[in-house]
Amino acid sequence: MSEQRTALYEAHERLGARFTDFGGWTMPVRYASDTAEHHAVRRGAGIFDLSHMGEVSVSGPQAGAFLDHALVGVLSGLTVGRAKYSIIVDEQGRILDDLITYRTDEDEYLVVPNAGNQETVVRALQERAQGFDVRVTDNGPATSLIAIQGPRALEVLEATRLEPAEDVAALKYYACVRARCADVAVLVARTGYTGEDGFELYCDNQDAPVLWDALLATAAELGTEEAPVGAAGLAARDSLRLEAGMPLYGHELSTEITPVEAGLGKLVEIALRKKAEAGTTTVGEDVLAAMLEGTPERTLIGLEGLGRKPVRAGYTVHVGERTVGEVTSGLPSPTLGKPVAMALVATDAVDGIDAGEVSVQDARGRAVEVTRTALPFYKRS
């Protein structure tokens, strides 16, 4: 087990959680059943401890201009209270992480990196801050993050002494507002990683146990068999994000996978075009522009199993006798009742895959029948 524990570790122990080492943190992987926790999010609401995620404050008169330079995205154009998905790359255009950035005030932003990349992102931002009137502060060690995801997420928040409830209810997707929940000061964001409507609540570590217990108390009051509400672990979070076709760093994103291969070419193209129009530059832009001009060697695709045999990360993808790629993420889908997977395959093999010549093999060479399907696998109605 890792040494880093969130402020809610003891609360998870009381709930009987099973733990796993994730991104250098000891995190609850499940409380009772992966599948039950997954279905709770799809039908009711699931409550997650995501305090392993990073939180980086970027503030100062040139905060927006600095982030435009440091990230692949135009963050200066965000209005206060809105958020944007972007990536951070090195000089060679390699993905260091994918991020959500919130503009919390006129001269202040909150950048949220993934747990395992927290130190890398903080270091890169601090190095790139040279020459800008800006402060980069790592607030991750002092901040907790609790997410509530699912069709009943707003109902649960409103029943947990949410003030001002009307402001939270009015939030658009990828927006945030300061509020109080269970008398705890929180930044509430309408973002998530499950494919459902939901919210993420940032608060001080010392307040996290109060907020967590209050949300679970509400869950106990509101949950029903048809629309359950309760704590959910990282296993359910993984199956939910895979169904929603959302990438996971270390699987669909890494320094070994280009942004274009990962399906982020449009994000890069828009960012570079807007920066060129504004006369600004970004780290790695020449390499990124060259990537856009060419055809990527690999393409990220969706696969679904034709039977019940699961498809797992690491399985090889084949067109006839040719090995053309590898599964990056794969699980049995609780919602769809079939195996689903994302795979990175040779671009010149995609036509053969579309023609139905595709299969995947496990480490022992045993084949699983699959077919290509569009991403995401699941969209909420």
From TrEMBL:
Q: InterPro entries per the record?
A: GcvT, GcvT/YgfZ/DmdA, GcvT/YgfZ_C, GcvT_C, GCVT_N, TrmE/GcvT-like
Q: Where is it found, in Gene Ontology cellular component terms? A: cytosol; glycine cleavage complex
SUPFAM superfamilies membership: Aminomethyltransferase beta-barrel domain, Folate-binding domain
Keywords linked to the UniProt accession: Aminotransferase, Methyltransferase, Transferase
For whether the record's keyword set contains Phosphoprotein, the answer is no
Domain Aminomethyltransferase C-terminal positions? 298-379
Per UniProt, residues of the GCVT N-terminal domain are 8-269
The positions annotated for binding substrate are: 200
Q: Name one Pfam family in it.
A: GCV_T_C
EC number(s) stated in the UniProt entry for this protein: 2.1.2.10
Reaction(s) this enzyme catalyzes, per UniProt: N(6)-[(R)-S(8)-aminomethyldihydrolipoyl]-L-lysyl-[protein] + (6S)-5,6,7,8-tetrahydrofolate = N(6)-[(R)-dihydrolipoyl]-L-lysyl-[protein] + (6R)-5,10-methylene-5,6,7,8-tetrahydrofolate + NH4(+)
- Any one GO molecular-function label of the UniProt entry: methyltransferase activity
Gene Ontology BP annotations: glycine catabolic process; methylation
Q: Does the keyword Translocase apply?
A: no
Record family assignment: Belongs to the GcvT family.
Q: What is this protein called?
A: aminomethyltransferase
* Organism for this UniProt entry: Kocuria marina subsp. indica
